[in-house]
Design goal:
It is a single chain. The chain is of the alpha+beta class. The chain contains 2 helices and 16 strands. It has helices spanning 18-30, 64-84, and strands at 10-13, 36-37, 40-41, 47-48, 54-55, 57-59, 93-101, 106-110, 122-132, 139-141, 144-148, 151-155, 161-166, 171-173, 176-178, 186-196. The protein has a 7-stranded antiparallel sheet with strand order 1-13-9-16-7-6-2. A 5-stranded antiparallel sheet has the order 5-8-14-11-12, with no helix packed on it. A hairpin with a 5-residue loop joins strand 3 (40-41) and strand 4 (47-48).
Length: 206
Amino acid sequence: MIAAATPAHVVIDGFLGAARAGELMQFALAHESEFSQSRFYTAEREARVDTSVRDSSHLLELGPLRAAFAASVDVVLARLARELNLCLPSETKKEIEMVRYGDGGFFKRHADAPPRPDGHDSVRALTLVYYFHALPKRFDGGALRLFSPDGFADIAPAYDRLVAFPSAAFHEVRPTRCASAFADGRFSINCWVRRAREGQSPSPSC
């Protein structure tokens, strides 16, 4: 980490506990065939696959694990909003996906906050990334790099770690190195908490 640059973020280690992290890994392995190439949203507000920009795969259908993860996020949401100086509604909308980065996988510098082309009346306000993987760890690299006007900070994808930061912040996923087996990759749960678009009625909690 570059000491002079401290982009706004919160790190919570031991977020779910080893048992629940293990459940996520087992779920990922059981649904390997359902992972598909990750997309990203362009300046033209279209989602597309381009492995020169983002090289990873994702799973959108998480079954009961989705509600369980959302509930865990709700427990710490007020703390995160306070520490990151964000205004969030009392009842939040969330997007959740499971992501795997294999050998050479990466995601170039980007921000999560641009509007989506699907008619949403809300925008991403808070990004959360939760890390898990096979034990023992079988990959190297894959750090989350958060940028600030003065530099950047690299955060390691440590087991059972949650990282939260404003969705408007620029960030990237550094290249991952691992063997070719699916289980050897860098896994995460990505969660975006949304708020009303500017000009819409704010939540009373704001």
